Structure formats: C-alpha cells, structure tokens
Amino acid sequence: MKNRKTLGIVGGALLACFLLLTLLWLPTEAVDVTAEGAGNGPYWARSGFVAATGPLAQEGDPTIPPSDQACRLCHQDSTREIEFRSDETLPVIIDAVELNNSAHGAHAGAALLCTDCHAPAEYQFPHEPVAEEDLRAFNVAQAATCERCHQQPHLTGHPGPETENPVVCTDCHGSHDVETVEQVRTGAVAAKCADCHASSGVGITDQHILTDIVRKGLFADRVDSDYCLSCHSQEGLTLIFANGDELSLTIDGDALHDSVHGADNSWQALDCVDCHDRYTFPHEPVEATSLREYNLERYTNCAKCHEGHYEDTLDSVHSAALVDGNLEAAVCTDCHGAHDTPTPGKPRERISQTCRQCHSTIYDTYAGSIHGESLLSDGNPDVPVCIDCHGVHDINDPTTAMARLRSPELCAQCHADDELMTRYDISTNVFDSYVADFHGETVSLFDHDDPNASSDKAVCFDCHGVHDIRPVDDPENGIKVNLLETCRQCHPDATENFPDAWTSHYEPSLEHNPLVYLVDSFYQVVIPVTLIGLSFLILTDIYRRVKKRIRR
Which has more confidence, 447 or 2? Predict the structure, then answer.
C-alpha cells in the first residue's frame, strides 16, 4: 500500500513535468482566442494564456514566447507598485507598445525577451523584495544589466558609477522605451538632456546645442578631438578665474586642423588628449586663480614632444625672468600659440610680430629701420629678424659684456657673406676692415683674453645703431651726415676734421680715399725697395769684412 502511494506521487510529479515541458515547447504562434478557429491553436493560446487583445498579439506582429507571456500577463495591465523604504514608489506596469517600438523591439534584428535582461534565475515568482533603499539606487542597480550586451559602451561626458552621483545608461536611453541611435541623433532625447542639466546645474540646456553635441561626439568609442570638440566647438564657453580673468573654452576646429599639429603634421595629427592627457569629464575644478597662472601650469606640456627646445628655454633670459618672479616672461604658448599653432617662421615677418607682443617699442623702432622696412614692406627674406640676432629658444642677455664683444660676429653672418651681399651691391670687407682697425683689434683682444671683460671700444651698433639702423647715406639719419656726432659719443673733444682720419670700411683706392691710396701705394714700393737696398748694403759690407779677415 505504501509503495503504491509512493508510485502515485512520483507519477503525478512526472505528469506535471510533462505538462510544463509541453507548455514551454509547443508552437509559439499567437492566436486570438476570440477568433473563429482559435480552438486549433496551441494549448496556451486556446486556454486564454495570451492576453487576446494585447498590442503584440495582432496579426503580423512578432511571436511572443511563453516566457514573455508570463511576464506580460502581470506587467502589461497592473496597478501594483514597488514601494521603497524611502517612501518612493515605482509602478510595475509596462507599456507594450513602447517596448515594441524601442531599440530592443521591432527595430532590433532579433527582439529581446524580458528574460534577456531579467534573468529567470533572479526573477522567480513571487518576486523577492527589492533590496535597494530608494528609487535612484534601484535604477542604478538595474542599469548595470545593460553591460551584459554593451560591454564597451560608448564614451560619455557624464560621471560614471564610481562617482557619488553617477549618470547610468537608463538615465539617457530609458529602460523599456529605449531610443534608437537614429532617434538620439535627431534630437529625440534632447528634452530629457536639457531637464537633467537644468536640475543638476549644468550650463548647457539649449536642446539644439545638446543635439549638436550628441551628433558630434556622444557615440565616440575613444576620446579623440571630435569627442572633445563636441562641447568645445560650441560658442560662448568660458572659464572665469577668481581674479576675474576670462578664458574662452571655445576651440576653432578648423584652426586646430590647419595648425602645425593638425592634418599636415609630419608625425600624425595630434588629438586633444595628446596634450590634455589627464582630462576627463566632468573636468576637475581648475585650481589656478588667474589666467596667467593657468597658462604657466599648462605650457610645460610642450616638453613631452619638444624636450630639446624646452630645455633650451631653461637657459634663456625669459626663463631667468620667470624664476626671478616675473610671471609675464614669455613661455612656449606665448610665442607659438596653443590650439592654432602656425608653422614657425612662415611668413617670415610673423617672427618679429610675435616678439612685438611684449617688445612693442623695440618693434616699432625696428619697423622703421632699413631691415624692418625691407621685411615688412617688401617681404624680403634676406634681412635679419629678431631671432637672427637674439636666438630662438636660448635667448641670451644682450646687455652682457660678452654679448657686446661678440656682436660684430653677428653682423658678419650677413655682411661677410659674399653671395648675399652681392645681391645688394654691398662690400663684404666691413668685418675684415673693422677687425683690422684700432677698434676691432682691441675688441678682438678682449674677446680672446676674457670674453666677460668690459670694453668701451666701439662695436658695430655703437655707430650704426641697434634696432634703428638706417642706410649709411640717409640724408637725415644716416651715419655719414651724423658721423661727427657719432664719434663724439666716445671722443667728446673731436674736432670737425676728426672723422676725416677714418677711411670707413672701404680699402683705400682711387675711388675711395685716393690720397691715402697713393701714399699707401708709394710706401708699398718705397719700403720694400729701401729694405732690399739696405739689406744689399749690409750683405756686401759683411762680405767685404769677411774677405778682409781671410787675407790677413
């Protein structure tokens, strides 16, 4: 009797299992039980297991598997709510139309089932009580399910799950009413973005701007320039420092593309993150209290690629001034720019115009000189610009004794160049003639003995000027008409005929200083002849004396 009872229980259990398997594996065509012939459908349809008038149970719609039907029977038409310990509530009803029209419904290659997100092992009925304290914590926990399929979600500029107030997948995309990518690109979620930004205190709330940002960068798979420019190309973005300084955060994408770091970069076009390598969004608060302080913090990024040039600047007068506390001393970005960096030295006049940003008075003087006029008016590439005399990155102090003693060598770089001076019919003997006269010989001796020794002997710029060099025959400011005044800078007692003693930089000739030339020519003949004659007399006298002694 006991065995029969046991067999009955086992048999009943097996029958129950068989019926359940039959229910799950029968054909899944949805059938309207109110229609004629419904009795020919599968068991779960004939028995009314399907909501006969449900939105997804219409002719031509995708089939609804039994696993989804079990969920829909409750969640498609229910007034129940989940109650959280925070006293918040969440309705459990799901809009089947929204679900079908979502990115996971009819728009998907294969529509997702309820159990694809809500795994059966975790969602048995009756459901376990919700563990989260409040609605927000529940939504954050549920959003983690998205990463089952989207293991590498696109980049966003929102705070991630590791932050105190994360923005999760469902905040933007929704849960059962997930927008398609095309809908997002066309601005379908812009209102949601604007509402969230407004409630969170984020400044960008214009739906058109937000849509533009979405189109340009939201779906990036890595942080690149397009991703950054999706925000930073927007007009009107500014950063206000504590002292009131204002920095525009709007970056001209075309200028960046056309810069030396852009498309024509010989290495490769740089992305924003090549320089801004520790910048995530939301950005960390800027600690600098002024725009200048911020620039001084950022310019050292240049050293990552341009280490040699950066090290040169450390020995320059600009770096020395910076160390001494002059925060306005020039750094890389002051001369080269930041995002719109042009090709250095092109056009050539840009070099001096760059120096003008700090040295405007000197630039204005240079612009009126023979060199400046030729460069700025005629675009002459041969004339010197600031860096030809002062250097580029390792600019030395031009006021030192060494700089003074070696200044003639700077002038000689051009004025002793035969090929260059021939183009302008200028004598190349200026350097040699200077070194050969009293002034030049003395300066050369000082430089050779001690380059740091002071000398008051005239160098090129004492007579010709520094930045205000004029043509020598200029009727108003040329050295010829002002030669006496020039000499009196060192020789205050010089008389009217004092300059006549100087033959300038020309070698004496019949054209230049003919009297000196003739006298020099005379002595060039007389002195050798005299020396030869005297030598002859001496030698013959020695011969006579030697011969006389031999005879004795």
Answer: 447
Q: Inform me whether the pLDDT recorded for 7 exceeds 60.
A: no
3-state SS track over 355-389: HHCCCHHHHHHHHCCHHHHHHHHHCCCCCCCHHHH
Structure tokens at 342: 């042009």
Q: Hey, what long-range contacts does 18-23 have (CB within 8 A, 24 or more apart)?
A: 23/66
Are 291 and 247 spatial neighbours (Cβ–Cβ below 8 Å)? Answer: yes
Per-residue model confidence as pLDDT tens digits over 79-125:
889 999 999 999 999 988 888 888 898 878 788 888 888 888 777 88
| Residue 467 CB neighbours (<10 A) | 19
Amino acid at 488: R
First to last CA, the chain: 175
- Asked whether the predicted pLDDT for residue 264 surpasses 70, the reply is yes
- d(Cα 297, Cα 275) in Å, to the nearest integer? 13
DSSP per-residue codes, 79-92: --EEE-TTS-EEE-
84 to each of 66, 90, 132, 136, 318, how far by Cα in Å? 30, 8, 7, 10, 64
What predicted TM-score, i.e. pTM, was given to this entire model? Answer: 0.65
Supply the angle between the helices 370-378 and 349-356 in degrees, to the nearest 10: 120
Angle at 517 between CA 512 and CA 522, to 5 degrees: 170
3-class secondary-structure state, position 461: helix
Q: Tell me the C-alpha to C-alpha distance, in Å, between residue 437 and each of 125, 405, 459, 485, 534.
A: 110, 15, 11, 20, 30
**Nearest-angstrom CA–CA distance, 278 and 259:** 22
Q: What is the pLDDT of residues 187-206, one digit of tens each?
A: 888 888 899 888 888 778 88
Which tokens in the block code for residue 433?
Answer: 């003639």
Picking from 85, 65, 71, the residue whose alpha carbon sits closest to that of residue 136 is 85
pLDDT value of residue 61: 41
Confidence band, pLDDT 50/70/90 cuts, at residue 8: low
Report which of 183, 180, 208, 177 is spatially closest to residue 194, judged by C-alpha positions: 208
Q: What is the CA radius of gyration of the chain?
A: 46
Q: What is the mean pLDDT of the chain?
A: 81
Torsion, Cα 483 484 488 490, to 10 degrees, reads: 40
Omega within 30 of 0 (cis) for the link into 282 = yes
Q: Where are the domains of the chain?
A: 23-177, 397-507, 514-552
